[in-house]
Design brief:
The structure holds two protein chains of two kinds. The radius of gyration of chain A is 24 Å and the shape is globular. In chain A, α4 packs across α14 (486-508). Chain A starts with 6 loop residues before the first strand and ends with a helix. Chain A is α/β, with parallel strands linked by helices. Chain A contains 14 helices and 22 strands. Chain A has helices spanning 29-40, 57-60, 98-101, 116-130, 139-146, 170-180, 231-240, 282-285, 303-309, 329-338, 343-349, 396-415, 429-432, 486-508; strands at residues 7-8, 17-19, 22-25, 45-48, 65-67, 92-93, 159-165, 184-188, 191-197, 205-211, 217-221, 224-227, 263-274, 288-290, 293-300, 314-321, 357-365, 373-380, 386-391, 419-423, 437-438, 469-471. Chain A is 27% helix and 23% strand. Chain B contains five helices and two strands; from the N terminus they run ααααββα. In chain B, α1 (2-27) crosses α4, α1 (2-27) packs across α5 and α2 (46-58) packs across α5 (116-128). Classes of the chains: A alpha/beta, B mainly alpha. Chain A binds chain B through residues 327-329, 332-333, 336, 340-345, 347-349, 351, 407, 410-411, 413-415, 417, 420-424, and chain B through 20-22, 24-25, 30, 32-36, 39, 41-42, 45-47, 49, 90, 94, 97-98, 101-102, 104, 106, 108, 110-115.
């Protein structure tokens, strides 16, 4: 084991008791971020990771779910290993927009317990964690500094957005730092099986029970507990912690596991034939180097237009397609646009057909839906715990957003003389969305809300009706915008780390 | 009066445009095509298909009839070649397309989101294939 201070849970004696100020479960983007912040502040941390340093099929099998909803990969692309899903993410970073934090009257259950401005300092700090350079997502500024042109959308109805990319593997990037820390105990192969209160009426968590695939069991005691295992596992852990509260911890309002959200990957619903050659806009199609950071431009529906149309957040990533891969109509329409006096020639000779068109690959906000949920299955994993049962559901509003956004883009493409767009979307959402997939962005199952009847956790991630149990990661998101979640996961984790540090300071005083 | 207005202001112009394209195809200016001569070769093209969809699903019965009348009148004018009037008509068509998009006068035909003027032009192509 290259990180020689890390322990292996499989070798820890049954009945053993570990102790720390803070027990963090899950060594992915959220858990490692929190652990780093705390150990730097001199806090004694026990970091539990269910997997090892690489994928172990026996361990990863503990992530199998029972799927009763939409089609989904059986392990949901989760990784039980040090570094979590950062071991295979694409590095796509962009913050949520200010509107994403607001209550939108057309999106039921929307609204975060704090604003974009509250999170902004943590976004900036998260940029450092993720090596993303300057916190600047101004696409016009980026384009000007890159010396490239943006597609001539007017910014009011359709805007160009800019994303940054850096697929930091948290285990590799920060393993040495954690390994060298004297106040961190990192335990691999440590699978949290339940969270225990001091007594059934208490709101104080005193310990967590940990098992490994070696079938041993031990406990970790701490003043604060943070669970950062992803939105599926976070919900499962709370629901499985049902010895003292039969419905599970935090589940007083039957909300744990509800509001499971994904970013809807919805492709092949439309393509744009540009008047100009596609070569004028390579920065939309592939990442370009921007001051040392990989950067790419996309198109999105701006906040004001979302309000007007009453739709969820919508972004389209543009991919280059060859007309040859599609029916000849692409080339014909293109020829009509580019050389109207020769279009007949193009039609008959097929010689003017351009190979360039932009395919919309969409990453769309799924609106919060209480029926989209994680529950416990009747089946059990090899450690005897109920598996998670997933019922991922989309709604009519999700489909409406897709339809209206495509309609808007196609009209703007024509109105502004950018080209023409073909949209292929069926009217019946339950049929149309059948082909939509997820981006492996699991969110929302322990959503934040100040009101315990509307959320599992408060605005800091504290599980309602507990004093010292926090959830971390994207399970906290009450709504998800279109932004890929890792940057926000890191930002909210930094915020949570600040909260814990402040509490510990007060406690020590 | 209604029919005359329609023909003069809208479809008439589109008819001239379609004529213009047709004239070019037959005038010898574009000799690259292996089998020029008529628009018949376009019968299976997407533009004709778009036009066919427009005629069947979007255009009113009256509009479809008028388009058919315009289309029927095209062959007798095909000998003129490109004229100043034709170029003006094409410019008018471009302005009409632009205006359609500005005011939201768009239609979806075979998935393509087009100005109504473009769709009508496609309809004429479909009718003259």
């Amino acid at each position: 084991m290259p990180f020689n201070s890390f322990r292996d849970a499989r070798t820890i004696e049954t009945g053993a008791e570990l102790a720390a100020d803070v027990c963090v479960t899950g060594a992915g983007a959220a858990g490692i971020t929190i652990a780093r912040e705390l150990i730097r502040a001199g806090v004694r941390v026990c970091l539990l990771e269910a997997g090892g340093l690489s994928i172990d099929p026996e361990v990863n099998a503990l992530s199998i779910i029972e799927n009763v909803g939409r089609k989904y990969p059986p392990n949901l692309l989760r990784l039980r290993c040090f570094g979590g899903t950062t071991n295979h993410w694409g590095g796509h970073c962009v913050p949520l927009s200010p509107l994403d934090f607001e209550v939108r009257d057309w999106v039921e259950h929307s609204g975060w317990p704090y604003s974009y401005e509250d999170l902004r300092p943590f976004y900036e700090a998260a940029h450092e964690v993720l090596g993303l350079g300057e916190f600047n997502y101004d696409s016009a500024d980026g384009a000007a500094r890159l010396g490239v042109r943006l597609l001539p959308f007017d910014g009011k109805r359709i805007e160009t957005t800019m994303s940054r990319y850096n697929p930091v593997r948290f285990g590799l990037a920060y393993g040495d730092e954690l390994n060298a820390s004297r106040n961190l105990q990192c335990v691999l192969y440590a699978d949290l099986s339940s969270i225990d209160l001091s007594d059934p009426d208490s709101e104080t968590v005193t310990s967590v029970r940990v098992r490994s695939v070696a079938r041993n069991e031990f406990t970790v005691k701490a003043s604060y507990f943070i669970v950062a295992c992803g939105a599926i596992e976070n919900a499962r852990i709370l629901l499985c912690s049902n010895r003292q509260r039969p419905a599970g911890l935090g589940n007083h309002s039957d909300l744990v596991g509800r509001f499971f959200m994904e970013h809807i990957l919805y492709e092949n619903a439309g393509y744009i034939v540009l008047k100009e050659p596609l070569s004028a806009y390579p920065h939309y199609v592939t990442p370009v180097d921007f001051e040392g950071i990989s950067t790419r431009f996309h198109i999105a529906v701006p906040a004001e237009e979302q309000r007007q149309l009453r739709i969820p957040a919508f972004r389209a990533e543009l991919g280059a397609i060859s007309a040859a891969d599609w029916e000849l109509g692409v080339g014909d329409i293109s020829a009509l646009l580019m050389r109207p006096f020769e279009f007949g020639h193009a039609l008959r000779c097929r010689q003017n057909a351009t190979p360039d068109a932009l395919l919309l690959g969409n990453c769309i906000e799924q609106t919060p839906n209480p029926e989209s949920r994680v529950t416990l299955s009747d089946t059990r994993d090899p450690l005897g715990r109920p598996n998670a049962r997933l019922n991922w559901r989309l709604s009519a509003l999700d489909h409406e957003g897709v339809v209206k956004a495509h309609d808007l883009i196609s009209r703007e493409v024509g109105r502004l003389g950018i080209g023409r767009m073909r949209v292929v979307i069926r009217d019946r959402y339950e049929i149309e969305l059948e082909g939509a997939g997820g981006a492996a962005h699991h969110m929302g199952t322990t959503r934040m809300h100040q009101d315990p009847n509307k959320g599992v956790t408060d605005g800091h991630g504290l599980v309602h009706y507990t004093r010292n149990l926090y959830m971390a990661g994207s399970s906290l998101f009450p709504s998800c915008g279109y932004a890929n979640p890792t940057l926000t996961i890191v930002a909210t984790s930094l915020r949570l780390a600040d909260t814990i540090k402040a509490k510990l300071r007060r406690h020590r005083l | 009066v209604r029919r005359r207005t329609f023909l003069m202001s809208g479809i008439g112009m589109l008819g001239v445009s379609a004529l213009g394209y047709g004239s070019m195809l037959t005038s010898g200016a574009l000799q690259l095509c292996p089998t020029p001569g008529t628009l018949g070769g376009m019968v299976d093209t997407p533009l004709a298909r778009i036009g066919d969809v427009y005629l069947r699903k979007t255009a009113s019965q009256l509009e479809a009839t008028q388009l058919r009348e315009v289309a029927a009148s095209i062959p007798s004018h095909l000998t003129g070649g490109a004229s100043d009037g034709l170029w003006r008509a094409v410019a008018d068509l471009a302005a009409s397309i632009s205006h359609d998009f500005e005011v939201g006068n768009v239609v979806s035909c075979d998935g393509w989101v087009l100005s109504r003027s473009e769709a009508r032009m496609c309809a004429l192509i479909a009718l003259t294939c």
